[in-house]
Design goal:
215 residues; mainly alpha; Hypothetical protein af1432; 10 helices; 60% helix; 0% strand; globular; HD/PDEase_dom; HD_domain
């Protein structure tokens, strides 16, 4: 598989996701790709093309972006058909893509360093300044309120509850984002998550102060 195939895939993904307003747009895919390649480099992983492809394609079958699971799988199959991958490479790529989602804390244990790298790369983009912006973009897309102190914070959820239960943008920090630092798989991911995690804590402290009229 040559670099030209990856470049064609990138152009197709840019066209498909450039106007996606939920925070899962082309720029998210590109940031995850860059994060993954940076982590791979620091973890001394030299064979990175499957990592790069998984980072680029990880959101394609996601149920947040597709009406049905079957629709997402068909869409992913279409993109993968653009690539001249061996059968075992396809299996590895699909295994990574379908194993990295948070799923309300009901995530799969990972067994390969490549999966760990892509999961960490995706989660880095869910925290920090970008993560804050994406949280409220996604909440607005779903029709969630910014914050409602009367909504009960959820700690243990099924996937269905995570996807459809009542929540808010601020609740999402406590239900997921603040947990991600301690769920990083690679040493590089853990280091990179520290600053982003601290930034979110600072944001929430300021938000709480302004919400309660304490200047």
């Amino acid at each position: 598989m040559g670099r030209d195939e990856i470049d064609k895939l990138i152009q197709a993904l840019k066209h498909e996701y450039k106007d996606e307003s939920s925070g899962h747009d082309w720029h998210h895919l590109e940031r995850v790709r860059k994060n993954a390649l940076l982590i791979a480099e620091r973890e001394n992983i030299t064979a990175t093309y499957i990592i790069e492809l998984a980072a680029l394609l990880h959101d394609v079958p996601d149920d947040k972006l597709n009406a049905t699971e079957e629709e997402g799988k068909r869409k992913l199959d279409g993109y993968v058909s653009m690539l001249s991958l061996k059968e075992e490479e396809k299996e590895e790529l699909y295994d990574i893509i379908f194993s990295i989602s948070y799923k309300g804390g009901n995530e799969k244990p990972l067994t390969s360093i490549k999966s760990m790298i892509v999961r960490d790369a995706d989660r880095l983009d869910a925290i920090g300044a970008i993560g804050i912006a994406r949280t409220f973009a996604y909440g607005g897309k779903k029709g969630q309120v910014l914050y409602d102190p009367d909504i009960e914070e959820r700690s243990v959820m099924t996937l269905q509850e995570y996807r459809t239960g009542k929540s808010s943008g601020i609740h999402h920090f406590h239900e997921k984002l603040l947990k991600l630092k301690n769920l990083m798989c690679t040493e590089t991911g853990k280091v990179l998550a520290e600053d982003r995690h601290d930034f979110m804590l600072h944001f929430l402290k300021q938000f709480n102060k302004e919400w309660n009229g304490r200047e």
